[in-house]
Fold this sequence. Notes:
single chain, 446 residues, mainly alpha, Growth Hormone, Chain: A, 2 domains, transmembrane transporter activity, MFS_trans_sf, transport, transmembrane, MFS_dom
Amino acid sequence: xxxxxxxxxxxxxxxxxxxxxxxxxxxxxxxxxxxxxxxxxxxxxxxxxxxxxxxxxxxxxxxxxxxxxxxxxxxxxxxxxxxxxxxxxxxxxxxxxxxxxxxxxxxxxxxxxxxxxxxxxxxxxxxxxxxxxxxxxxxxxxxxxxxxxxxxxxxxxxxxxxxxxxxxxxxxxxxxxxxxxxxxxxxxxxxxxxxxxxxxxxxxxxxxxxxxxxxxxxxxxxxxxxxxxxxxxxxxxxxxxxxxxxxxxxxxxxxxxxxxxxxxxxxxxxxxxxxxxxxxxxxxxxxxxxxxxxxxxxxxxxxxxxxxxxxxxxxxxxxxxxxxxxxxxxxxxxxxxxxxxxxxxxxxxxxxxxxxxxxxxxxxxxxxxxxxxxxxxxxxxxxxxxxxxxxxxxxxxxxxxxxxxxxxxxxxxxxxxxxxxxxxxxxxxxxxxxxxxxxxxxxxxx
Length: 446
């Protein structure tokens, strides 16, 4: 063998090795980016339940203040469909990577600004107005993050492991929730005056560090070969949203309804947190630690659910998990309101960490595989964000539905369980795609 052929062989082997590492690298990039985005998103939810009623809405009675703070949390979800249309358009026009870098900077900057925002005592009614505007920017960013990360990872993965690698986007979400809660636990233990004056700002200011790490990891990731291929063939849609709504409106509608499962997440992470601590005297650290345990468990179970989905299909795992959530909501509330710490931990680990982890791990591949590459970013972004509107307002709706007494949670459990059943019914109408080649996804209409 000549020196030239040997060098060529080594170069070819090196290129092949680098190519084989791309799915893992894409999964890492998506994990870290989602961790930042949802660290920022979850610290707002925690603060809305525990802090903001007293800091930014202190000029009204406590019950109204709580509702207004939860409303500000939900408003972030109003911006998400708008962000989905805008960011989905550019994600399908110029590529996944550029848009994902933009979402990082937008989310990190908005969160840092919240941490620096003067309270209502300092600037009056301007404080909650600015807070709400910054929350809207968070919503715009979140609209493009998960869908872009899912598209990036899916399109770098082999056919046999798309669900597994794509699930790491949602594992990043769990890691962000864990990180946010771990930061809030010592902060929430501060004396009340210190907590409300400066302590609550610490988690928001720390987002600058997470932003730096995520940006450095993400900026070197190459564009996906699937997108480069449609770009080289001049198949990029001029107006992806128009093509999406013309050819894929049933799939968009299906994703919207399937995404109602996210009501479980915001009900446990935001509503149950405030409900258990204010109505039943459960210590704030207990509920926060329960959230950590649930999310740590999900970090273990989600990749396992995704591996199963790569073997038996997306639909059985997704539908089974969704219906399991509908059933377990009732014992979850019984345990959370019992005041027993071990029972509360067990409830969070079983519902959030095991059962909800199934649809949470599967939806990134399940939804994205309904669309072809030229509208995939837009399809998943618009579908999920319209569906997530219900999740965004679940804490507010739950607070208005809750009754008096020990069983006041029953209307809330019924409401979220109904959302789960509707989600499962929509998923049952979808095409099973786990054996479909990535080049053929979404092309049954061609």
